[in-house]
Amino acid sequence: MAPILALAFKDLRLLLRMRSGLFFTFVWPLLIAVGFGVILSGPSSGQSTISVALVDEDHTPGAAAFLARLEGASELETARTTRAEAEESVRKGTRRAFIAVPSGFGASSERLFHGAPPTVELGVDPSRTAESGMLEGVLMKYGTQRMQQVFSDPDAGHRAVASALKALPADKGSDPEVASTTAFLGALDKYLQRHRALDPAAGSTPRASSGDGWTPLHVRKRDVTGARQGPSNTFEFTFPQGVVWGLIGCIMSFAVGLVVERTHGTLVRLQTAPLTRTAVLAGKGLGCFLAAIVLQAIMFALATLVFQVHVHSVGGLLLATMSAAAAFVGIMMLVAAIGRNEQSTSAAGWAILMPMSMIGGAMIPLFAMPPWLVRLSVISPVKWAILAFEGATWRAFGPAEMLMPCGILIGVGLVAFVLGTRFVRTV
Description:
By secondary structure, the chain is of the alpha/beta class.
């Protein structure tokens, strides 16, 4: 093992001295992971509406009218569902919130000037504070349209005033507040009667005023904690992509380096020493494996310590990094066996690895791929490397689920390494 280790550390020292290889192995993947993570975590201007589920538990004309106004709201994308379906959609993240109209809403909406205001229930994930505030504003906006109806429909306003006067205490002079409310409602009723006698087109609609203690709608918030089914931030899927690009840069440096050593006669001189061809290739493979492990360790350390990437299983991540390193070492040896010189090896390597990356999730995240591309991606070891990384982080795979991607990676690595060492030229 001593000669193999010596050859491996020799290649690591050469990698550190080669600026282009060092850049594409350690710096470029970090730029990809951080750069795309920052870009994709910015606010999206394309989301103009909030997707909500609507639940009608009152089944009255008042509730139907209110929900109809919400369905016509430009700020919302709505769908009628049951309460159970609405809560599940918010929990899974398919909808941002649900709005439920509970029993008694219609009766409360008829009592415009007295009693408790109509209540709606807003169910939202507590982590979505921005959406929660926006939805409360939307609900209050469309809740005040009931007040506007009082002035645009004097008959409806007269009924609301009569209902409020009837609900006041019989002895209206004993309480100053009751007396002032009675005077206000009487003046309002006279205004509405006069407005009803005029041509509605000639009059003007007063603006509703909300005094102290009055509100057109009461919003009762309810937290619906989401069952996370996706990455909590953009860095959780850009860092696995960045690691893959680093692995590609690493194996290309070693593959081209092996061909350069062969064309320059270095491998021949090594084999004149007491070293076999197998030992030389094993040293080259071990050096590439160690470089891949160091790269992944640095990337995931930065991801967890700086960019809040949560690691679900440290053991799973260790298994994923070892498996990915093994797979890409095998691919390195296979790429080195294809080219006859430095230029042809580089061209052949990128011709193989770029399509692997495109269909394997290194450019488009796996969860954002169309179904047909997900089915095609199974032929790419890049897909299984990213799936293993994501399984140890935000996908929260169990041990049994980690076995499939890691087993495929190890299998790919063994087959590619055996084929590569069989056909690579050392003289």
